[in-house]
Amino acid sequence: MGNEVVDHSRRRFLTAATATVGGVGVLTAAAPFIKSWQPSARAKAAGAPVTQSLKKIELGQQLIVSWRSLPVFIVNRTPSQLAALPAQDPRLVDPKSDGSSAEQQPKYAQNETRSIKPEWLVMIGICTHLGCVPNYVGEMKPEPFDPNWQGGYYCPCHHSRYDMAGRVYKDVPAPKNMLIPPYQYLDDMTVQIGVNPKEVS
Amino acid sequence: MANVLSSIGGWVTERAPGLMPMYRKHMTEYYAPKNFNLWYYFGSLAVLVLVNQIVTGIFLTMNYNPSAAGAFDSVQYIMRDVQWGWLIRYMHSTGASLFFVVVFLHMFRGIMYGSYKKPRELVWLLGMLIFLVLMAEAFMGYVLPWGNMSFWGAKVIISLFGTIPVIGSHLVDWIMGDFLPGDATLNRFFALHVIALPLVLLLLVVLHLAALHEVGSNNPDGVEIKKGPTGNRWSALAPADGIPFHPYYTVKDLFGVGFFLLVAAFIIFFAPTVGGWFLEHDNSIRANNLVTPSEIKPVWYFTSFYGIVRVMPAFLGTAVWGVLTMFGAIAVLFLFPWIDRGKVKSIRYRGTGFKVGLGVFVFAFIGLGSLGAGVTDKVFPQWFGDIDLAAWDNNFGRLMVVLYFGFFVFLWAYTHFGWEKTKPVPDRVTMHD
């Protein structure tokens, strides 16, 4: 036995084959553990649409409702806030929301005010940088972070700024305009968040 | 009695003959250079803090409840109702910050005296891995009390991965196990914090020490004592400038332990939050997914890296650049042994360029730290009056980023092209008899 010639190519083949089969086995066995980190069925089921009446939201006021545990901003924009929107265009990253932010709103909200009805802004209040909730700074007056402030959102985490349509200003860490969720009007003063309007969907 | 003990010792030795040689190799016959100074306390202090974290951590888990509904209350329960619970928690939270104090100083020592250079590259790499795991461990530990800063800190840090194009948002859902940090996130962080990462950490510490003891310790002169003359009081073959780790350095380190515990006890008993630097005030408020704290900032030991994320702008429609730069700032530390081509180890005999460069590097690290901690937001208006704060922060931070990475570019060129004018290195450590 000890004097037999070792067949090295046979030995190499067997080693490689064993390692391959073992490697595939390890990867296959790892899959359930990796998948166990995915959102569970319970977490996924918790995302039902939310209905909100707009009657008690006064002019210039913001209401935050929770949809899929995400903060949704509903703002009753004043005429002066709306009037200031077009003037912001040169200072914005993507004023028409058709460039880097083309996917940040449903088609029916891809317009000047990023909304179905101009005065009502419905938006997921999460900074597109790292997911903080920006503060609503609605008053049009000079702010420490911007002497020409025309109302909008200011993120406390990394100082990203957005205008009154959630459009991001240039030279801040956030790359995109804030996300507009799917929503529809059930009647004149009631919105449902999480569902597209019937005629468009 | 002595008879019984020695017969038990004989019984063990007969069955485990390798134990005593191992003890001798790492303790009584591990010859460390005799010229260690103050900077050499921090390695053993890091071990001390690690033991403190493990012991206090085990006791904290006995009363902690890892669920979104119960976590915050269970921490308040530990602080108020569990006998001595406040002490155990403050030992753990203060220990976490002091861990980074000693690790930063330990790393700075290594850079100063060239301890990462040949033949100790492996020691440095293992140490850097320890640093990386320690950061993950500290981050997950900070999430567990489920205060508002825990929640938003978790959200921001996990969202760092969301900036990766294409797979980012799926990766974020995978890490959180939900669409927001919640029960699933908290439970998996608990599991990683109390068992998975500590096991990895302990293994890495053993490897770090094993790698060190293979090549022997460096010293403030950067002289290889193994290449010097041999023969000392204990062995004819050991380096002449080495002394046994035990009892000489165990006793020295015990003195360091005493001093360190004095400082730690002062913090734990008189100022456990250190004015919001060790424990942030916003974390005494329950986690709320609809309200972001007015200013999100991490604990002080992450602020330098966080400052980088804060000042890097988005372009090409993605915010990934800040994240890449931040991870790059850590990755570049791994490469120290290969960026620095200089043959002279210790700062005592290196050129002026290295000393100035290292000073600039420390300045940039602290500058980014004060930016990330929000210190500049407060002092810039005081110093410079009515200014565009966002622009000042961005410009200052970007300058610091340039200085941070510039140090490495400079260091490489300085040593690669032979611009460094070194002083002659002595043959033996300067305090040999």
Give descriptors for this structure.
heterodimer, A: 201 residues, alpha+beta, Rieske Iron-sulfur Protein, 3-stranded antiparallel beta sheet, 3 helices, B: 433 residues, mainly alpha, Cytochrome Bc1 Complex, Chain C, 2 domains, two-stranded antiparallel ribbon
Instruction: Give me the side-by-side strand order of the main sheet of chain A.
Output: 1-9-8
| Strand residue content of chain B | under 5%
Q: What spatial form of chain A do the alpha-carbon principal axes imply?
A: elongated
Query: What count of structural domains of chain A?
Result: 1
Order of helices and strands of chain A: HHEEEHEEEEEE
Q: What percent of the residues of chain A sit in helical stretches (DSSP H or I)?
A: 10-25%
CATH topology of the largest domain in chain B: Cytochrome Bc1 Complex, Chain C
SS class of chain B: mainly alpha
Give the low-pLDDT segments of chain B.
none
The tally of strands of chain A reads 9
Whole-number average pLDDT of chain B? 93
Order of helices and strands of chain B: HHEHHHHHHHEHHHHHHH
CATH architecture descriptor of the largest domain in chain B: Up-down Bundle
Q: According to CATH, what is the class of chain A?
A: Mainly Beta
Distance separating the two termini of chain B: 42 Å
Named CATH architecture of chain A: 3-layer Sandwich
Nearest-integer average pLDDT of chain A:
87
Uncertain stretches of chain A:
none
